[in-house]
Amino acid sequence: xxxxxxxxxxxxxxxxxFASRARLEALGEDGxxxxxxxxxxxxxxxxxxxxxxxxxxxxxxxxxxTPEGSKAEGGVFKTAGNFVYGVHLGQExxxxxxxxxGIA
Length: 104
Fold this sequence. Notes:
globular, 3 helices, alpha+beta
């Protein structure tokens, strides 16, 4: 049982770490993606990037108490043959918020 627990722990620790919204913003990039950093959030800049991140699940925990008011978001990308589809919930941008408010 200890070996199995250790194997699961090692599998979780060694997963790939992608740049999250917070990391992108800390590097001075837009939280929606970057042209210079390879990241799964680039699907918001160019939807064709979904092909590079197929069969992947992402979650980001938000903290509404921060000044930015970041919210939780997450998505799934799945491959079916040569087709990659996905859904992402909770992502907001200044452009979409402005157009909903009728400002843009």
